Amino acid sequence: MSMITLALSKGRIFDETLPLLAAAGITVTEDPEKSRKLILPTNQPDVRVVLVRATDVPTYVQYGGADLGVAGKDSLIEHGGQGLFRPLDLQIAKCRVSVAVRAGFDYQGAVTQGSRLMVATKYTSIARDFFASKGVHVDMIKLYGSMELAPLTGLADAIVDLVSTGNTLRANHLVEVEQIMDISSHLVVNQAALKLKQAPLKRIIDAFASALPQG
Ligand code: PRT
Ligand code: MG
To answer: Would you say the CB of residue 172 lies under 6 angstroms from ligand 1?
Structure first.
Protein backbone atom coordinates (compact mmCIF):
# COMPACT_ATOMS: atom_id res chain seq x y z
CA MET A 1 0.00 0.00 0.00
CA SER A 2 1.71 3.20 -1.15
CA MET A 3 1.15 6.50 0.65
CA ILE A 4 -0.76 9.23 -1.22
CA THR A 5 0.28 12.78 -0.26
CA LEU A 6 -2.04 15.71 -1.05
CA ALA A 7 -0.69 19.28 -0.85
CA LEU A 8 -3.10 22.00 0.28
CA SER A 9 -2.76 25.54 1.55
CA LYS A 10 -4.48 26.60 4.76
CA GLY A 11 -7.54 28.80 4.52
CA ARG A 12 -9.99 28.95 1.64
CA ILE A 13 -8.39 26.19 -0.45
CA PHE A 14 -8.24 23.76 2.49
CA ASP A 15 -11.80 24.62 3.55
CA GLU A 16 -13.27 24.32 0.05
CA THR A 17 -11.41 21.07 -0.70
CA LEU A 18 -12.86 19.27 2.35
CA PRO A 19 -16.24 18.52 0.67
CA LEU A 20 -14.42 17.09 -2.36
CA LEU A 21 -12.29 14.88 -0.08
CA ALA A 22 -15.48 13.75 1.64
CA ALA A 23 -16.77 12.57 -1.75
CA ALA A 24 -13.65 10.38 -1.92
CA GLY A 25 -14.39 9.06 1.58
CA ILE A 26 -11.44 11.03 3.01
CA THR A 27 -11.74 12.98 6.27
CA VAL A 28 -8.86 15.05 7.61
CA THR A 29 -8.69 14.10 11.28
CA GLU A 30 -6.89 17.21 12.56
CA ASP A 31 -7.85 20.90 12.30
CA PRO A 32 -5.02 22.92 10.65
CA GLU A 33 -6.18 26.10 12.41
CA LYS A 34 -5.68 24.43 15.81
CA SER A 35 -2.73 22.16 15.15
CA ARG A 36 0.83 23.25 14.40
CA LYS A 37 1.43 20.10 12.41
CA LEU A 38 2.34 20.45 8.75
CA ILE A 39 1.46 16.83 7.96
CA LEU A 40 -2.14 15.97 8.75
CA PRO A 41 -3.43 12.42 8.97
CA THR A 42 -6.73 11.35 7.47
CA ASN A 43 -9.19 8.56 8.23
CA GLN A 44 -7.41 6.57 5.52
CA PRO A 45 -4.00 5.25 6.63
CA ASP A 46 -2.57 5.60 3.11
CA VAL A 47 -3.67 9.23 2.55
CA ARG A 48 -2.11 12.29 4.20
CA VAL A 49 -2.33 16.04 3.69
CA VAL A 50 0.70 18.36 3.72
CA LEU A 51 0.17 22.07 4.36
CA VAL A 52 2.24 24.40 2.20
CA ARG A 53 2.03 28.02 1.06
CA ALA A 54 -0.48 28.44 -1.78
CA THR A 55 2.28 29.47 -4.19
CA ASP A 56 4.36 26.40 -3.23
CA VAL A 57 1.70 23.78 -4.07
CA PRO A 58 2.71 23.50 -7.78
CA THR A 59 6.38 23.13 -6.80
CA TYR A 60 5.66 20.38 -4.24
CA VAL A 61 3.65 18.42 -6.79
CA GLN A 62 6.14 19.03 -9.63
CA TYR A 63 9.04 17.51 -7.67
CA GLY A 64 7.02 14.74 -6.02
CA GLY A 65 6.98 16.18 -2.49
CA ALA A 66 3.27 15.58 -2.92
CA ASP A 67 1.48 13.31 -5.39
CA LEU A 68 -1.31 15.76 -5.97
CA GLY A 69 -2.46 19.17 -4.82
CA VAL A 70 -4.98 21.94 -5.17
CA ALA A 71 -3.67 25.23 -6.56
CA GLY A 72 -5.14 28.49 -7.80
CA LYS A 73 -4.81 29.14 -11.53
CA ASP A 74 -2.84 32.27 -10.53
CA SER A 75 -0.20 30.15 -8.76
CA LEU A 76 -0.17 27.64 -11.64
CA ILE A 77 0.45 30.30 -14.27
CA GLU A 78 3.22 31.94 -12.23
CA HIS A 79 4.82 28.52 -11.61
CA GLY A 80 4.65 27.55 -15.28
CA GLY A 81 2.99 24.15 -14.82
CA GLN A 82 6.06 22.00 -15.71
CA GLY A 83 5.66 18.34 -14.68
CA LEU A 84 2.03 18.80 -13.71
CA PHE A 85 -1.03 16.96 -15.00
CA ARG A 86 -4.09 19.16 -14.52
CA PRO A 87 -7.17 16.91 -14.75
CA LEU A 88 -9.84 19.07 -13.11
CA ASP A 89 -10.97 22.65 -12.64
CA LEU A 90 -12.44 22.31 -9.14
CA GLN A 91 -14.32 25.62 -9.42
CA ILE A 92 -13.43 26.56 -5.84
CA ALA A 93 -11.65 29.60 -4.32
CA LYS A 94 -12.94 31.69 -7.21
CA CYS A 95 -11.76 35.23 -7.81
CA ARG A 96 -10.30 37.29 -10.66
CA VAL A 97 -7.00 38.97 -11.47
CA SER A 98 -7.49 42.67 -12.04
CA VAL A 99 -5.66 45.92 -12.58
CA ALA A 100 -6.39 48.53 -9.91
CA VAL A 101 -5.27 52.13 -9.46
CA ARG A 102 -5.72 54.92 -6.92
CA ALA A 103 -9.10 56.63 -7.26
CA GLY A 104 -8.39 59.69 -9.40
CA PHE A 105 -5.50 58.19 -11.38
CA ASP A 106 -6.30 58.48 -15.10
CA TYR A 107 -5.46 54.92 -16.15
CA GLN A 108 -7.20 55.06 -19.56
CA GLY A 109 -5.46 58.36 -20.25
CA ALA A 110 -2.07 56.90 -19.39
CA VAL A 111 -2.74 53.87 -21.62
CA THR A 112 -3.98 55.96 -24.56
CA GLN A 113 -1.05 58.38 -24.32
CA GLY A 114 1.38 55.45 -24.30
CA SER A 115 2.92 56.46 -20.98
CA ARG A 116 5.16 53.98 -19.16
CA LEU A 117 3.22 52.46 -16.29
CA MET A 118 4.79 51.46 -13.00
CA VAL A 119 3.05 48.22 -11.99
CA ALA A 120 3.48 46.47 -8.63
CA THR A 121 2.41 42.84 -8.33
CA LYS A 122 3.05 39.35 -7.02
CA TYR A 123 1.76 38.06 -10.40
CA THR A 124 4.55 39.23 -12.69
CA SER A 125 3.99 36.64 -15.47
CA ILE A 126 0.26 37.32 -15.71
CA ALA A 127 0.85 41.09 -15.61
CA ARG A 128 3.70 41.01 -18.15
CA ASP A 129 1.65 38.96 -20.66
CA PHE A 130 -1.43 41.12 -20.18
CA PHE A 131 0.30 44.49 -20.71
CA ALA A 132 2.38 43.09 -23.58
CA SER A 133 -0.82 41.99 -25.34
CA LYS A 134 -2.21 45.52 -24.93
CA GLY A 135 1.05 47.05 -26.14
CA VAL A 136 1.46 48.98 -22.90
CA HIS A 137 5.01 49.52 -21.68
CA VAL A 138 5.40 48.69 -18.00
CA ASP A 139 8.06 48.73 -15.33
CA MET A 140 7.33 45.82 -13.02
CA ILE A 141 7.93 45.84 -9.29
CA LYS A 142 7.69 42.41 -7.66
CA LEU A 143 5.90 42.37 -4.29
CA TYR A 144 4.96 39.44 -2.05
CA GLY A 145 1.91 40.94 -0.33
CA SER A 146 -0.06 44.08 0.58
CA MET A 147 -0.10 45.16 -3.06
CA GLU A 148 -2.83 47.69 -2.20
CA LEU A 149 -0.25 49.88 -0.50
CA ALA A 150 1.83 50.43 -3.62
CA PRO A 151 -0.37 53.02 -5.39
CA LEU A 152 -1.14 54.76 -2.09
CA THR A 153 2.52 55.33 -1.27
CA GLY A 154 3.61 56.29 -4.79
CA LEU A 155 5.55 53.07 -5.27
CA ALA A 156 3.47 52.26 -8.37
CA ASP A 157 0.76 53.66 -10.66
CA ALA A 158 -1.14 50.39 -10.76
CA ILE A 159 -1.31 46.97 -9.15
CA VAL A 160 -2.26 43.58 -10.53
CA ASP A 161 -3.93 41.59 -7.77
CA LEU A 162 -6.62 39.06 -6.94
CA VAL A 163 -10.07 40.48 -6.26
CA SER A 164 -13.13 38.65 -5.01
CA THR A 165 -15.63 40.94 -3.26
CA GLY A 166 -13.67 44.12 -4.02
CA ASN A 167 -13.90 45.14 -0.34
CA THR A 168 -10.13 45.33 0.09
CA LEU A 169 -9.77 47.65 -2.92
CA ARG A 170 -12.65 49.87 -1.74
CA ALA A 171 -11.26 50.07 1.82
CA ASN A 172 -8.02 51.40 0.35
CA HIS A 173 -9.62 53.85 -2.12
CA LEU A 174 -8.51 51.85 -5.12
CA VAL A 175 -10.54 51.28 -8.28
CA GLU A 176 -10.61 48.16 -10.43
CA VAL A 177 -9.95 49.39 -13.99
CA GLU A 178 -9.50 46.11 -15.90
CA GLN A 179 -10.27 42.45 -15.30
CA ILE A 180 -7.47 40.27 -16.66
CA MET A 181 -8.83 36.76 -16.06
CA ASP A 182 -11.13 34.62 -13.92
CA ILE A 183 -9.41 32.38 -11.38
CA SER A 184 -10.43 29.12 -9.74
CA SER A 185 -8.45 26.30 -8.17
CA HIS A 186 -7.38 23.21 -10.07
CA LEU A 187 -6.40 19.69 -9.10
CA VAL A 188 -2.80 19.03 -10.14
CA VAL A 189 -1.09 15.65 -10.16
CA ASN A 190 2.58 14.65 -10.38
CA GLN A 191 3.08 13.00 -13.77
CA ALA A 192 5.33 10.18 -12.50
CA ALA A 193 3.01 9.44 -9.56
CA LEU A 194 0.12 9.20 -11.98
CA LYS A 195 1.83 6.16 -13.52
CA LEU A 196 3.25 4.61 -10.33
CA LYS A 197 0.16 5.07 -8.15
CA GLN A 198 -2.43 4.99 -10.90
CA ALA A 199 -5.28 3.18 -9.12
CA PRO A 200 -5.43 5.17 -5.86
CA LEU A 201 -4.92 8.49 -7.68
CA LYS A 202 -7.58 7.72 -10.26
CA ARG A 203 -10.01 6.89 -7.44
CA ILE A 204 -9.45 10.34 -5.89
CA ILE A 205 -9.62 12.20 -9.24
CA ASP A 206 -12.87 10.41 -10.17
CA ALA A 207 -14.44 11.12 -6.76
CA PHE A 208 -13.50 14.83 -7.03
CA ALA A 209 -14.95 14.93 -10.57
CA SER A 210 -18.23 13.38 -9.41
CA ALA A 211 -18.55 15.99 -6.63
CA LEU A 212 -18.25 18.98 -9.01
CA PRO A 213 -21.34 21.01 -9.97
CA GLN A 214 -21.59 19.50 -13.48
CA GLY A 215 -21.24 16.00 -11.95
O1 PRT B 1 -1.96 34.32 2.12
P2 PRT B 1 -0.60 33.82 1.67
O3 PRT B 1 0.37 34.92 1.46
O4 PRT B 1 -0.10 32.66 2.46
O5 PRT B 1 -0.76 33.20 0.24
P6 PRT B 1 -1.87 33.43 -0.82
O7 PRT B 1 -2.54 34.76 -0.65
O8 PRT B 1 -1.27 33.10 -2.15
O9 PRT B 1 -2.84 32.28 -0.44
P10 PRT B 1 -4.35 32.27 0.04
O11 PRT B 1 -4.51 31.02 0.84
O12 PRT B 1 -4.75 33.57 0.64
O13 PRT B 1 -5.11 32.11 -1.35
C14 PRT B 1 -5.00 30.90 -2.04
C15 PRT B 1 -5.69 31.05 -3.37
O16 PRT B 1 -7.06 31.39 -3.17
C17 PRT B 1 -5.15 32.11 -4.30
O18 PRT B 1 -4.01 31.65 -4.98
C19 PRT B 1 -6.35 32.32 -5.24
O20 PRT B 1 -6.32 31.39 -6.30
C21 PRT B 1 -7.56 32.02 -4.34
N22 PRT B 1 -8.33 33.21 -3.91
C23 PRT B 1 -9.67 33.36 -4.08
C24 PRT B 1 -7.87 34.30 -3.32
C25 PRT B 1 -8.97 35.18 -3.16
N26 PRT B 1 -10.07 34.55 -3.63
C27 PRT B 1 -8.77 36.48 -2.55
N28 PRT B 1 -9.73 37.25 -2.39
N29 PRT B 1 -6.64 34.67 -2.89
C30 PRT B 1 -6.47 35.86 -2.32
N31 PRT B 1 -7.48 36.79 -2.15
C32 PRT B 1 -7.11 38.06 -1.51
C33 PRT B 1 -7.13 39.26 -2.45
O34 PRT B 1 -5.86 39.40 -3.05
C35 PRT B 1 -7.42 40.44 -1.53
O36 PRT B 1 -6.22 41.02 -1.10
O37 PRT B 1 -7.99 38.37 -0.48
C38 PRT B 1 -8.10 39.77 -0.35
C39 PRT B 1 -9.57 40.07 -0.16
O40 PRT B 1 -10.28 40.06 -1.37
P41 PRT B 1 -11.65 40.91 -1.51
O42 PRT B 1 -11.73 41.38 -2.94
O43 PRT B 1 -12.77 39.93 -1.19
O44 PRT B 1 -11.60 42.04 -0.54
MG1 MG C 1 -3.61 35.44 1.18
So the answer is: no
